[in-house]
Amino acid sequence: NAGVTQTPKFQVLKTGQSMTLQCAQDMNHEYMSWYRQDPGMGLRLIHYSVGAGITDQGEVPNGYNVSRSTTEDFPLRLLSAAPSQTSVYFCASSLTGDGYTFGSGTRLTVV
Amino acid sequence: AQSVTQPDIHITVSEGASLELRCNYSYGATPYLFWYVQSPGQGLQLLLKYFSGDTLVQGIKGFEAEFKRSQSSFNLRKPSVHWSDAAEYFCAVGPFSGGYNKLIFGAGTRLAVHP
Question: For strand B33-38 and strand B24-26, is the pairing parallel, antiparallel, or unpaired?
Fold first, then answer.
């Protein structure tokens, strides 16, 4: 039982490049979400999904795109990377929405 | 607007000493409250949660937290700290909107443990 798997673990991008952060869970959880973690700011919600085909914006959605075509996968796309998107990104999932399982994170640096 | 404040950025305790990490929240209704722990380079692990009922909540790893509505607080405690408890701790409040808990996190408290 792998839980929540995020790939890659580390990534360096040049400004303007695009990329997709992958997130997969094998627990049949309906709820999935993406957070970014920045020093001194805790975690902030980027986008979330309450089931396949349903997504919505969180607190800091600008510059990011998501889709949820299956229950298992919830990829996060950076459309045109900016230095302000340098952060650690966490994917999380939950069966009932009341307590989340987090992945181990993706550390992204935009130069 | 909902918010979570963790007043202490860094705390250092000696191994075996007691611990209390503070958390204050701002929320208009009865909150869902969580404590998570993050070890270096790792994701977040749920320590405990409060939704309703008994205001003293027991969690994993010997932690407990007490919900005090009058003080808008949800402080985390442990009677005797172990060196392995060194980590960053996050308090979160979850507004329940549309069947989904959008978690709002505090900035975190980094705990160091002296041998």
Answer: unpaired
Strands A54-57 and A76-78: unpaired
Q: Which residues of chain B make contact with A40, given a CB cutoff of 8 A?
A: 9, 107
d(CA A91, CA A36): 9
Chain A residues inside the 8 Å CB shell of B92: 43
SS3 A55: strand
pLDDT, tens digit (0-9, with 9 covering 90-100), for A34-86: 999 998 888 999 999 989 999 999 989 999 999 999 999 999 999 999 999 99
Query: Is beta strand A106-110 parallel, antiparallel or unpaired with respect to A10-13?
Result: parallel
- % of chain B beyond a pLDDT of 70: 94
- What is the Cα–Cα distance from B115 to B90, expressed in whole angstroms? 23
Burial of B33 (0-12, 13-18, 19+ CB in 10 A): buried
Contact B103 A43 (CB under 8 A): yes
Whether B95 has a pLDDT exceeding 80, the answer reads: no
Burial of B52 (0-12, 13-18, 19+ CB in 10 A): exposed
Chain B neighbors of A42, CB-CB under 8 A:
4, 90, 105-108
Which of A43, A50, A104 lies at the smallest CB-CB distance from B100?
Answer: A50
Would you state the structure tokens that stand for residue B27, as one six-digit string? 């929320």
In whole angstroms, give the CA distance from residue B68 to residue B102.
22
